[in-house]
Amino acid sequence: MIYIKLFLSFLQIGAFSIGGGYAALPLIQSQVVHIQHWLTAGEFTDLVTISQMTPGPIAINAATFVGLRLGGVLGAVIATLGCILPSCIIMSILAYFYFKYRELEVLQTILQALRPAVVALIASAGLGILVQALWSDSSKGISLETLSLSGGAIFVVSIILLRKRKMNPIKVMGIAGALNVVLFYASVLLK
Amino acid sequence: MEKGIIRKLFLSTFYLSAFTFGGGYVIITLMKKKFVDEYHWMEEQEMLDLTALAQSAPGAIAVNGSLIVGFRIAGIRGALAAVAGTVLPPFFVLSVVSMFYAAFRDNKMVSLVLEGMQAGVAAVIADVVIDLGAKIAGEKNVVSLLIMAGAFLCAYVFHINVIIIILVCVGIGTIRGLWNMRKDGTE
């Protein structure tokens, strides 16, 4: 039955995609394209493109997309549940041990070593996004000439709004999106 | 009282998830701003601990992170509310978008807004990283600084899997912990 197949496939995706985000991509591809033949390679590329343009984790997006196509809304719900079930179980176990033993000195030293690493990982993810925003056409290489002026300007304005004005980050993102539209049409008009 | 918190938790994660373009770390930074800086529901250090846990488990970081943060704030019901809030927006948005995919993909306005938002997202992450990094630098602990620099190089320059980075840090922490215990024992 398709619902059971969907559930089991996305259960595997949820259970084995360690490292988050794009680490899950090859796993999703092997399940839905190569093993189950639910999507063609072209449809999978569409799915990745949609995921990049919409909010949310790619595994959840894939579950919704494939589930909807094969089993309607119920299929989408079942695939999504399969996808998040392993997370829920494993995270609950980790949470239990963390809240029970976090006062232990050994655990405190371990956490102390982890915190700077987490900051570094967030910084690394952020820098990756920044490079993409500033050099949107990476095929031209990364140099001062290929720098996207609008991207740079939006980044600077956003930083000022966040740090000096302490503006709500969601508002800042909205302004950033609107600003890019304005800058684009302004540059078209000036030409 | 508790009911109010669960509702607030659900609405916050729903709202954050609906605007989270660009992966799990973005929602983690937004959750830190909302739950630590705005609501004061937890400490900054705890948020980093929970992020490390979310990173170590399989599955989407956004789901893992909201689950454990929800659990920390309001127990099992909090965890359920936070996960539902995180999963529902992409579920709805993708359902709608996949129906109008071609029109959506080729729309110039949509791609311009998304491109601009990317620079905005980078700024939001930079803002939080500056705060967190400055605090760690302020502790003037050489090991912490080395870990931060080393982990950054491993992740950004050498593209080493985050799980390996986390395991190495757990190893370093364990050795330090055992070392301290031995030192305390001999004194």
TrEMBL record, chain A:
Keywords: Cell membrane, Membrane, Transmembrane, Transmembrane helix. It comes from the Bacteria. PANTHER family: CHROMATE TRANSPORT PROTEIN-RELATED, CHROMATE TRANSPORTER. It is found in: Cell membrane. Belongs to the chromate ion transporter (CHR) (TC 2.A.51) family. GO terms for molecular function: chromate transmembrane transporter activity. This is Chromate transporter. InterPro entries: CHR_Transporter, Chromate_transpt. It comes from Lactonifactor longoviformis DSM 17459.
UniProtKB/TrEMBL annotation, chain B:
InterPro entries: CHR_Transporter, Chromate_transpt. GO terms for molecular function: chromate transmembrane transporter activity. Its main location: membrane. It is found in: Cell membrane. The chain crosses the membrane at residues 9-30, 50-71, 78-103, 142-175. Belongs to the chromate ion transporter (CHR) (TC 2.A.51) family. This is Chromate transporter. It comes from Lactonifactor longoviformis DSM 17459.
